[in-house]
Amino acid sequence: MNNLTALINTIEPIYQEVANQANDHLNQLTKPQGSLGKLEDIARQVAGITGEVMPTFDKKAVIVMAGDHGVCEEGISAFPAEVTPQMVLNFLYGGAAVNVLARHAGADVVCVDMGVNAELEHPNLVSRKVRKGTRNMAKEAALTLDETIQAIEAGALIVEDLVAKGYRLFATGEMGIGNTTASAAILCALTGMEASQTVGRGTGIDDTTWLHKQGVVNKALEVNALREPLNTSAEYALEVLSKVGGLEIAGLVGVILGAAKHRCPVVVDGFISSTAALVASRLAPLSASYMLASHLSQEQGHTKLLEAVGLAAMLQMDMRLGEGTGAVLVFNLIDAAGKIMKEMATFESAGVSRG
């Protein structure tokens, strides 16, 4: 706990004066003020995060955390749990959607085993396995507090290692059959929303399984006595993450906190990554300023989830795959915003009259 507390205490506000300088530069460019919309928002935010008016992100990574969920015993997914290790190998061999989109964005995929219920070997696999999957949250706490903290700290250390190698821009990704169920439970516990409002179709379940999944979430909340939606303390957020979360979700909390510590932007993917963002924002409220929400997932409850963090999605693509696919798309927008800042003419340089 001491290491986690120290990590949280290192996170400082973004450089607002540098964000203001970026805004001043944007207003000198040959366009009506604000006419590039969210591209301008990105330029201001990344300037404030990094302390550079025109930062360059030569090395960027999507960190894909993987872990299994004991709650799969309850039959809440259209896919069996063995898909998790199979997909991890797919990531490692470069065949998944996130690999394709990362290559397009000039980014690297860093695949991390946080808690896969299998022994995996590959030279590019980062193994930080805390345990082989979580316990069944519908029967008991998914994780102990120590296991949760270990996973968070592991995520932060992965970012630290990558920063030392020159990476300055990160995205969150995940893989874990059953993790939409865990995410829905986290959202219920931290916001007071009902399971009927947070439980989505995940991997594409039918109506009967969807209703059953809602019941499983309610059972998990009851078994673990998590009904304090007005409790916004860091301690309660950590308790919720431990009791109904996942190792990959906890790892992503660490990734977000680690990125904030090192003043690096972190692009948050979809529904599952956003639950990690919510927990991170409860542990360290200043960390929210370092996050960029990528897309609005098809999973219901995502809009309310982002609102709870104080974020708004940039894209609405009807995506619900996870892996970091939506977040990696936003790498391209960040690059575009940077080019606007560096390459677009000013009114003075172009000899264009102001409106």
UniProtKB/TrEMBL annotation:
Catalytic reaction equation(s): 5,6-dimethylbenzimidazole + nicotinate beta-D-ribonucleotide = alpha-ribazole 5'-phosphate + nicotinate + H(+)
Residue ranges that the Swiss-Prot or TrEMBL entry lists as coiled coil: none
Keyword Glycosyltransferase tagged: yes
GO biological process: cobalamin biosynthetic process
Span of the signal peptide: none
HAMAP family for this protein: CobT
Role summary: Catalyzes the synthesis of alpha-ribazole-5'-phosphate from nicotinate mononucleotide (NAMN) and 5,6-dimethylbenzimidazole (DMB).
Homology family: Belongs to the CobT family.
The name this protein goes by in its record: Nicotinate-nucleotide--dimethylbenzimidazole phosphoribosyltransferase
Organism of derivation: Paenibacillus pectinilyticus
